[in-house]
Amino acid sequence: MALTGTYAPSATGWVRKNVEEYEATNGEKGGTLPGTSYPVVVVTSVGSSSGNLRKNPVMRVERDGAYLAVASNGGRAKDPAWVDNYRKHPEVELQDKAEKHTYRVRELSGEEREDWWQHAVATWPTYASYQEKTDRLIPLFLLERA
After folding, report:
1. In this structure, is residue 115 part of a structural domain?
2. In this structure, are residues 16 and 54 in contact, taking their beta carbons and an 8 Å threshold?
């Protein structure tokens, strides 16, 4: 089921620009986080407070058709804003290049979280340093095709 609502572009310039380029070129441009060569996907979620559609690039961490959204926020003390969106509205749309599908979201814990954390760090080693920079346990969200 496609998400419906009014799209509210991010107030953060690099996020807005990255999403615009990604969508306009099916991930051929805007397909990486600024300053990296690592690929991203774009996730559309429903805003937890506004109800507006929000789009965010997240690092592409995929395994067997499921994707992981790592709420690292670069190791900052607070979760990224999209965490509340996922918790309140656990259905999102994910675009990986030209492919766009609906996914169910669930927050991971325990052994499953540890398994996916190891996969995330193997995919993007910088996650380990982000965890070292913060006292919070970085939330992990598994996105599975609906």
Report:
1. yes
2. no
